[in-house]
Write a structure and sequence with these properties.
This protein has nine helices and 18 strands. With 361 residues, it is of the alpha/beta class.
Amino acid sequence: MNLSVAHGVHALLLPFWLAVALSPALHAEPLRAKDQVLFMPGVARVVEGGQLEIDVHAWLYEKERMHGVNSLLSRYLKIDVQRLSRAARTRFDQRTGLFHTESSDERVIDIVVDATGLQIALPPTADNGRTNMRLLIDAPSPRPDEDVVRFHALTAPGDTRRFNGQAIVVPPVGLSVVSDIDDTIKHTHVRNTHEMMLNTFTRRFDPVPGMAQMYRTLAGEPGTRFHYVSASPIQLFPPLAEFLRAGDFPVGSVHLRESTTWRSLLPGKGTSRAHKLAVIEQLMADFPQRRFLLVGDSGEADPEIYAELARKHPALVEAIVIRDVTQEGRESPRYFATFDGVDPARWHVLVDGDAWPVPAR
């Protein structure tokens, strides 16, 4: 992608952060040896004037092997680590690794856009080590084969580590597939807390048969993009990203729940709903001419969340697909009440083994 020098940047946060981010008096310190940066895959869009607006979401932290944390975590998760197989114990240690962290606040990360070498300072990290920004760079309208913008954190001279990030370029029109993860494309058994914990932390991730194939079929239509929206905490991003890659799911943006402490591993009442609604509402606001296919499951509140969005944005929501994990059936009182006011032709209950109810265009 032939990106040119930026004319400006603007932050997603308050104007104060914008002023700080652009202040020439504030410079990023080189990343220290213990510093780690995690970028969440975001979105990019062409705005008026042909510039490209890129969402950057970063977490700055230090890994700390804190004594006793795994024992506390295993008790919190109700997992008897001593009874796990060697392979399961290894997975537990790997997937809980980002709970052994200390977030770094009031630090500034410099990022470099790979295609141009353009260097931009992100706003200072908050108490939870997070920093978010929307930056504008001059760019021609992306060609169809140029659908990812890549960038990385600037490290100190001699530091060979590389912390990469990317944003998918979303055209103004086309289909956006918004997909839940747990029990939608990955067997998790969220309704059984003990099974959910074992499936999340100790067992191999098990893809739902047929979902990756259908997503790849949808991805074959020009202009289709994918957005994986889940209430899983951001500490699980590395294994989830590997699951998506290994399962051959289409590349997309990933939107996990803010949770930089292990005590918030399980979402509080309403937290998951608020997270998903906020993410999808923002996508719809950013891409008001696109069509949205919302895919979830019946194990928690996906039907209710998607129905609310369909009533609020009937012109944007093309279809809703709910994977049936509760065996309620389309004619159940729950769906009758949930989808009141939604065109019956626009929502579908998918039973495993059934043909995909929404044909690819």
